[in-house]
Design brief:
Blueprint lengths: L5 H20 L3 E2 L5 E3 H7 L2 H4 L3 E4 L5 E4 L4 H10 L8 E10 L11 E10 L5 H16 L7 E7 H10 L7 H8 L7 H10 L4 H11 L4 H8 L4 H16 L5 E3 L13 E7 L8 E5 L3 H4 L7 E7 H10 L12 E5 L5 H13 L4 E3 L6 H11 L3 E5 L1 H6 L1 E6 L5 E5 L1
Parallel strand pairs: 1-5, 7-8, 12-13, 12-14
Antiparallel strand pairs: 2-4, 3-4, 5-6, 6-11, 7-9, 9-10, 10-11, 14-15, 15-16
């Protein structure tokens, strides 16, 4: 897990601000929740792999609790609590701290922050399109283009249809999806082992790999047939994203199925163009989760966008903010008698809405201006005995080196 020094917080705040702004631009409402969740809820619907990664504990009241590994089960619980008084569709977002006990690797930490966008109560693919558009808005605000990233889209419902057409029974679907989710992440012989463990025959395993070779919407349409509801949904979302003007950012990818068991339809993942990093964000439709947890039938679409991979990609491309100076103006003084005027100057700037770093002890001019330059301040005011007598100060622009005199 991570500590965030000021320079790290500058990066985190930059990413968070883009997330907040992008959610606001697309009309999402902010929500939050406690980081501790009921273990039973997470075990029921967090997903097969995540269940093994939960940080769980028993509290002093002997309750089984856990640090949340993701936000969707918590969101479901919150929606159920107010389902009869809410207006749908509901567009909510949060930036949630999540915890998973898993092997550390590039782009993977045991603690991360995740931007979640969810739309509850909308059955059409317009919900998927809006969430993908909001995520791409964030990517563009961070400085990334269609030449840097691609959102890869598929449908679990389409994949299920094709598996059945190839004679793979429905009871094996979940295990096959888990294996497919590892495609491109682990060697193919390992995927074969997973499919064999799922009781697939040699012919069935061959069929899975044939399905994985489908690399276009036309090829998928040919394999699924004109009457496929899942194929129609894919075509609909393509049309919607085209209307947003974002077609350059998306691709069809049959290997995208997502590792969480509650997804029911369209799924998507975003990768850097060379796929050198882990997924930047991912999500999809989960129409049964609310009712499976005891609520009404509410169709939902959601997305999770972590802070770790995007920070690595932005660093690689030189797109991260530099410096961590919280203030625009630095005010310093030569001696203790000058401190009162320095405080007065700082208060004046602050009352005008300026961010000021006030030196807390006298320092030599050379040390003060050297510190100001290295810290990245815009302007500096240095107070000496002569300034105290004259009640005149000089505001130095540290970029142009020009000075402006101000009488108090």
């Amino acid at each position: 897990m991570r500590d965030f020094y000021p320079e790290d917080m500058a990066i985190r705040n930059h990413i968070f601000q883009v997330w907040h702004n992008s959610a606001r631009l697309h009309g999402f409402l902010n929500y939050d929740s406690c980081v501790v969740e009921n273990l039973s809820l997470l075990k029921r619907k967090a997903g097969e792999e995540i269940t093994e990664q939960i940080y769980s504990f028993i509290d002093k009241s002997n309750r089984e609790l856990a640090l949340r590994p993701e936000m969707t089960p918590t969101l479901a619980r919150m929606l159920i609590a107010r389902q009869n008084s809410m207006q749908f569709p509901a567009k909510w977002y949060t930036i949630a701290q999540c915890f998973r006990y898993e092997r550390m690797s590039k782009g993977r930490k045991r603690e991360h922050f995740q931007w979640n966008l969810d739309i509850a109560g909308e059955p059409s693919t317009s919900a998927e399109a809006e969430i993908i558009a909001a995520a791409i808005t964030a990517m563009r605000a961070l400085g990334l283009t269609a030449g840097d990233i691609k959102v890869r889209i598929n449908s679990r419902a389409l994949m299920a249809e094709l598996l059945i057409k190839h004679g793979i029974q429905q009871e094996h679907t979940a295990s096959v999806f888990m294996a497919i989710d590892k495609y491109g992440k682990i060697p193919e012989p390992e995927i074969v082992k997973m499919l064999t463990a799922a009781c697939l025959s040699e012919e069935g395993i061959k069929a899975v790999f044939e399905i994985m070779k489908i690399n276009s919407i036309d090829a998928a349409k040919s394999a699924a047939g004109d009457e496929s509801p899942a194929m129609r949904a894919i075509i609909e979302i393509w049309g919607a994203i085209s209307t947003y003007g974002l077609t350059d950012f998306i691709e069809f990818d049959m290997s995208v199925v997502r590792g969480l068991g509650y997804y029911t339809g369209i799924v998507f993942e975003c990768y850097d163009i060379k796929k050198e990093h882990r997924a930047i964000f991912g999500g999809g439709r989960y129409d049964n989760l609310i009712s499976d947890l005891g609520g009404n039938k509410i169709p939902c679409v959601g997305m999770g966008f972590g802070d770790v991979v995007i920070a690595e990609l932005l660093a690689e491309k030189g797109l991260l903010p530099t410096g961590s100076a919280p203030a625009l103006v630095a005010v310093g003084c030569m001696d203790k008698p000058s401190m009162s005027l320095a405080i007065e100057i700082a208060v004046m700037f602050r009352n005008n809405g300026e961010s000021v770093d006030l030196a807390l002890a006298p320092e030599k001019p050379k040390n003060f201006f050297s510190r100001c330059s290295s810290a990245g301040f815009d302007r500096a005011v240095y107070i000496g005995p002569d300034d105290v007598k004259s009640r005149k100060i000089r505001i130095k622009d540290l970029k142009t080196r020009q000075e402006t005199e101000l009488s108090l």
